[in-house]
Batch of 2 targets.
Target 1
Amino acid sequence: MQTMGKWVFRQAGVQHLALEETAVPTPGVGEIVVRVAAVALNYRDLRFINGGQSGTALTLPATPGSDLAGVVVATGAGVTRFSEGDDVLGTFWAGWIDGECPPEARVLGGSLPGVLAQYVVLNEAWAVRAPRTLSAIEASTLPCAGLTAWFALVEKGTVHAGQTVLMQGTGGVALFGVQLARAHGAQVIVTSSSAAKLRRMRELGATHGIDRSETPDWDRVAREMTGGQGVDHVFELAGGDNLGASLRALRQGGRISLIGTLDGYNMSLPSIPSFIGRPTIQGIGVGHRRAFDDLVRAVDTLGLKPVVDTVYAFDQLPAALAHLERGAFGKVVVKVGD
Amino acid sequence: MQTMGKWVFRQAGVQHLALEETAVPTPGVGEIVVRVAAVALNYRDLRFINGGQSGTALTLPATPGSDLAGVVVATGAGVTRFSEGDDVLGTFWAGWIDGECPPEARVLGGSLPGVLAQYVVLNEAWAVRAPRTLSAIEASTLPCAGLTAWFALVEKGTVHAGQTVLMQGTGGVALFGVQLARAHGAQVIVTSSSAAKLRRMRELGATHGIDRSETPDWDRVAREMTGGQGVDHVFELAGGDNLGASLRALRQGGRISLIGTLDGYNMSLPSIPSFIGRPTIQGIGVGHRRAFDDLVRAVDTLGLKPVVDTVYAFDQLPAALAHLERGAFGKVVVKVGD
Amino acid sequence: MQTMGKWVFRQAGVQHLALEETAVPTPGVGEIVVRVAAVALNYRDLRFINGGQSGTALTLPATPGSDLAGVVVATGAGVTRFSEGDDVLGTFWAGWIDGECPPEARVLGGSLPGVLAQYVVLNEAWAVRAPRTLSAIEASTLPCAGLTAWFALVEKGTVHAGQTVLMQGTGGVALFGVQLARAHGAQVIVTSSSAAKLRRMRELGATHGIDRSETPDWDRVAREMTGGQGVDHVFELAGGDNLGASLRALRQGGRISLIGTLDGYNMSLPSIPSFIGRPTIQGIGVGHRRAFDDLVRAVDTLGLKPVVDTVYAFDQLPAALAHLERGAFGKVVVKVGD
Amino acid sequence: MQTMGKWVFRQAGVQHLALEETAVPTPGVGEIVVRVAAVALNYRDLRFINGGQSGTALTLPATPGSDLAGVVVATGAGVTRFSEGDDVLGTFWAGWIDGECPPEARVLGGSLPGVLAQYVVLNEAWAVRAPRTLSAIEASTLPCAGLTAWFALVEKGTVHAGQTVLMQGTGGVALFGVQLARAHGAQVIVTSSSAAKLRRMRELGATHGIDRSETPDWDRVAREMTGGQGVDHVFELAGGDNLGASLRALRQGGRISLIGTLDGYNMSLPSIPSFIGRPTIQGIGVGHRRAFDDLVRAVDTLGLKPVVDTVYAFDQLPAALAHLERGAFGKVVVKVGD
């Protein structure tokens, strides 16, 4: 029997993570086995390990991780979408193919086992073909952060040239947001309380930066940047009272994407001055497989390169999670195989 | 010179309303003169008279009223949409024809003069043909309350048979909401703290009523009424902390219409448990002329009869406003002409 | 081993259909076994049996039939959507869940085995819960004819009250079209060359009928019926040169649904007079599972009863197909079990 | 009284065009007077002059021309959208603001007087602000050709990165189509029977060219270029039997824009093999003012430069029309003022 390494925790808490030796899985009917090359981490992995993932009862022992890039090494009976040797990415939502999210859809590294292992078995419906133009490390950043930005901007927001999109902060979704909005000819305003990060966002393509530590009334300044009309779309990534300012920055009939990758936050919708603009406020929870296929095609056409902060070796997961916790500019990725 | 009566206030406050004698207007280029038959009142008329209408600087003297039914008695040069003798309704938004609301659109009885007069002059673009099947008194209820419900349900919400829509309260928009949702084959849940009003809503077609005074956790009960899936669409007419309950009552991917007829309210968006459902929260501010034409056609096809609570004579405006203030079931209408 | 009856043909042609004895299937991983209660026939079943189904290489022996109602009698490992005893309907498209049709989707009684058998095995993703308010015989008419009408009218056409929809002919899709359009408050014009069938369509709810044998310029008459504006939506079910007339009957910006249940026809798009109206011409090929769930909910809410022409016993399939071939008003259904 | 030059014809036919001296217009209520700087020509101007414009009774004498760039030199009473000195473009459709085209909308140089004059008077609703980044000559190309491409691609087609759009031929709309599709990250295939023009299209950004004179089965080759999936969107600019090939080149659920700038053509919709893909076939007739504002914003953001073939002086209109008739690569523009 072939064995492999897999990260497991038997009690909630990062300190209980252990790299265990276990059997390489074999594919059942309709399943594929993927040799994992890279796993990108998300903040929700930390919450999951710490036992606080919302809406998901933690069943122990558990393996964390949702965003994998790898190669198909075995296929079960009836598999038609993939062959051995195909480079694939997992879908964050297992079973959300297109349209609305069906009740039976589940999350890898959530109610389904996670992917921080050398091999994983997936239903063939839970994977897409990887982009031709990215390394596995780069591609592993797409399933959650990349698709969330794409879904908000393109699938729901139908971004187009000449619009102005505002990104709050400089997290992983905001970085993809800048790159994708620019690739569609839109202007991008970024808010951050770090001048250094604003500089890096401008290098990435952002057309304007607002330093929130110097400009607390950033919504007024953002509105001025659009000639008084207001921005077309805000990525609401901060939460709290911030939503009021987002509404004030918005044009008549504009759009706010509430982005929480499954974890919400308290926020307050303000009164008269901001409300009268007929906004559309849209909750975003990653996205479906068809949109993921669209994103992969776009990445290859555009030559878009995801921003990776640091790559950690497979046995360095705790260090990678510590990095994630103290903040990063770009994705933190665990290199699993070759 | 022909004269007419017109309601005017020279200081903010209902007590300063006076029925004045003034010249009947004549139409300019592209304008029509309408002999007013009926004006339906809205709560915003009270705020306007009291000087508190949001976003609108009150220029005195002023005439209140936005929702008129009447007949065209004169047409200016270049008018092509109407002829003398046509029964018409005014559009709440003057200059919002279709699609997005353009910045130049204004409101009758807001930044434009109101319609509580025996004759009014309107740009021909600010009126639609009245339904064939309603009296002027009934038809006068359509421009604000009727169109708001239609816009939320049909134009934005694409209601269809088998859905469940939840109406908060028993105001004018909620009443139209019940009638229109039922006319499209949807089920309707109404919440109210009055058992008597719930009874009347059921007579109007509502399929379920929840008495909020007896069932404070109405969202749980509403969800049960849909077999646990959640309702498809909530008309958020209460504001405040209520929005949290609305989100809890909603299905995955459901819709909340924030309805305020131009006046907002403080409300809070709740955290995790309700947020993960990818809701669409849509601000509604009445609607455009093309949708109004659609509504008129629907009223005639359906034989839908608006609910009128009480009709007041033209010189009884203060009594009508007092009625509005203490609450009504159905619209309060001022009969102006014959 | 339990055995059952199944219709099989080993050469193309209705005369080669034979009722064979074979083993009752057992469910694999993710599969359900359904005891079939009723199968509704479609014209495409005849073409399939005669070897002419487009785009599908006929692999013999084969079993025809796509539209089944039945009850779950066994579930395989990993099944979560259904339990034994659930009343279900098959989906015409196996694997089209929502949104766009993925390339891997296939058709029961097409590239997948048909359902004219006492038991069938289905992936659990290929079924929906049956409506509570219909018999199995009635419900079996929904998967193809019912869903096609629903998908064109509601999912793609967002029908609403006050619109006018025009149905060409009196086939199965047109009958559902009349019932569903009426249930959403729309008016319906039907064209047919049979006065008797027009009478029955009016009984079913159609608001207007046009006898094409007496009124060859039916498009002109249809336009008059809408006060000159043109109809909002045409179900193009006739093909050929007819599309030109459909465009002439249509309003500015109206919609034509090209409905062929997978088999096309030659048709010509006419020139200037009809083209300038910015039509949307939409090809319809049945629909997806999420819309089917919506339809089932609508049927239960509305109490809609499908029109069944004649019910045949399971061993009378050849007679049922002969009936189909000579024409029916409503669906021809084979009763398989109890 | 100030006078100006204006092109007039008193009989149908280019040979009857005469440059006449007439009074400079003055603005009425709600109107602006524009000093015309440039007028771009369209093929429909030729048809109009030759008396063959579809659906429009030619009233003589008449002035041709629809696409103007100029500067506001006078404003009538009640004008709020513009001030003297504003650079503006006329809207092709006078009175189509947003959403659906209302019946009262008319065309400049169609049922309304044309703009080949040194000064024109327009309702203020029939103009938009010119882009900051283009000369008047460049900007004059936007109202018809530019907006048609934008409307098909962005407003109706919601183009996004990674898609493949196919342009038939190298006319004015196709040129804008290439530039705008590329600006949204899409790939573009162009078909033409001129190798030289295909070269120029590649210089403009087209990713692939197919020489129809060498590759009559261009649809097969186009499909191969997309890895067998089919293209996402075809600009159908050729008409005739070509539509069949367009459908064969299209992916499942793809879009065809029928573009005719108000003049249709005979075309045939083919049978089975192409039909089963659930296409959306959308008639395009230029577009509305809100989309035009969006286009102007996009042009400024992108720095997009329209392709101008040749500029003619105001008194050289007949030579400009002759150029148009024999074909151009880019727009033919008449320089009217400075």
Note: The longest helix of chain D spans residues 142-156.
Target 2
Amino acid sequence: MDNAGGPVVGVDVGGTETKAVLVDASGTVLAQRRSATPPPSSDTAQRVLDVTCSLVADLSEHTAPAAVGLVVPGIVDESRGVAVFSENLGWSDVPFASLLGERIGLPVGFGHDVRAGALAEHRLGAAREASDAVFLPVGTGISAAHVHSGRVLAAGGYAGEIGQVPIEAGERRRIRLEAVASAGAISRRYQDRTGTPVAGAADVARRVAEGDPVATAVWDEAVDALGGALIWLTALLAPEVVVVGGGLSHAGPLLFDPLTRRVEEDWNLQRKPRIVPAALGDRAGSLGAALLAADLVGAT
Amino acid sequence: MDNAGGPVVGVDVGGTETKAVLVDASGTVLAQRRSATPPPSSDTAQRVLDVTCSLVADLSEHTAPAAVGLVVPGIVDESRGVAVFSENLGWSDVPFASLLGERIGLPVGFGHDVRAGALAEHRLGAAREASDAVFLPVGTGISAAHVHSGRVLAAGGYAGEIGQVPIEAGERRRIRLEAVASAGAISRRYQDRTGTPVAGAADVARRVAEGDPVATAVWDEAVDALGGALIWLTALLAPEVVVVGGGLSHAGPLLFDPLTRRVEEDWNLQRKPRIVPAALGDRAGSLGAALLAADLVGAT
């Protein structure tokens, strides 16, 4: 990031929390803030703009930004600067780029949380120097973003929604990928089968390590489903590296060993992707938003 | 195609037959020739060059071409002009672009048969005006080529080899997609189950129409497997249109109705691709080769 115009702010609107970073020309985070994302209502989009402006104002006390980047979940059409749809946040067709620009009086970059995360992992994180890479966040949902020659493919905002693919899981009925293999699904499925509440997928992973057979079955079904998705995206996109992000990326060898083995066993072409954890953690989205901003005001 | 430098020749090396077309600036085919592809041997690449030069010389009697395009199957790295690998033709690391250029003394475009076919369907055929399209030839094998903003993504030549993906077919064991759903697999599987020889997948399709239960089972398994591939590529790439090519594309409603229904039923996002047959038939590859040539010598 070579932001000739000075530092920039990146804002990532998550399902529950909105994260903001102030980043300098070298990509260094100078300051960061977090705020609760407004709950869905008739005016969520306006309230998200309020939170964004407040976070930008707060970070501007540190040093004045040259531009602001904003990224949101759901279906996003970057080319028009519009949030097309978000089921979780309850909006459709919000022209965030122009709305935020009017309120803030600065150049505004606008994008999609996962594609911005992919851009950040490509330029600053675990996918540096790859000409074809996939960012695969596995958290409350599952999606994939394909970075090709430095650009993230959007296809009108619809590319990469692999969490919605129906698969056949352990129970041999059709179920959507993210209902089996997301971090949320892993804890939910364990709780459903045992009646025992768990503190997220990490807690299920701990029980796998302790030999809990139900935890092991739930985990194996999730990893098997993710492995299937990995083979399809490898076949279609031939990435050199797949960067797994989201909550599940902290699971270490329990996740990465079987995924790597799956690719070794099931994919018979010479070019196989490396499967690696994300480097930027939950800051990938806000750093990506900052990159969108920096791209507006200086060379990157 | 606006080939300022005059007509061009496109040559498509298939597994058994090599096709060549002489094409004018408007994309009209002025003449065409076919020749047997040399069988695999220690010098297949040289013999393919011989056949190519002979076809070009033959078509040049009609009118002198300004450039030649050559496309081959297997793993092809267009950026280096090299045929990396072909199991069927038995070669590896053949620098076709420079070898043909030396022999022929004309500008040479070199590429991959399926990606060239995708380019042709995009510019001249069934995927015109789509900003994201997938060309899905289903013949002796199965692969996919993704056209994005007018360019076909290659990823070093490895993208799109979906025929190699292991799936679970009717028999509930892991089997590669193209061993279930290619045109070749359909006739082979029918013969294996009945002992009755058939004249290709079209013959099996005819038996489906007549109510043959074995033909129906084999056909349904193939269409189900192709439907699964369609959902994955829709989720990852979000194409506006999927152009099905190869031998199976002539099957009409028996193929396209269930594939379209599968996308309607299994894909829940707003943007669903149209599933349409290829417009250029078995000339897609040679026309795509001609486009690669035309791009070298004039605006397209």
Note: The first strand of chain B starts at residue 8 and ends at 13.
